[in-house]
Write a structure and sequence with these properties.
- With 105 residues, the chain is mostly helical.
- The protein has a single domain, classed as Tetratricopeptide repeat domain (Serine Threonine Protein Phosphatase 5, Tetratricopeptide repeat), CATH 1.25.40.
- 82% of the residues lie in helices and 0% in strands.
- The chain is globular and about 35 Å long.
Length: 105
Amino acid sequence: MDEMNRLQMLTQFLELNPGDAFARYGLAMEYSKTGQTEEALSQFSRLLELHPDYTNGYFMAAQTLERAGRTAEAKAMLEKGIDAANRTGNRHALSEMSGMLEEIS
């Protein structure tokens, strides 16, 4: 399945299920993968607004921001993600985001 079909499929699914975290994360990732940074960040933002404990959303949003040269925003996203990882006890996400934060600081 090519990127456009995945984007269309995920968009249609979210129209019917706007609160589905996994589908919204998938759509954000597809946009990020195809270089549509603003669309990706918009979807990550919506994901995290609806699901503030979706720790991988913070991590992947930070990676998208860093690739776009928006380091300060990436750091802020990682700090929010670290808070979420601490809140949820997600040690793996905490480790990944802390490592990235150290790397880009």
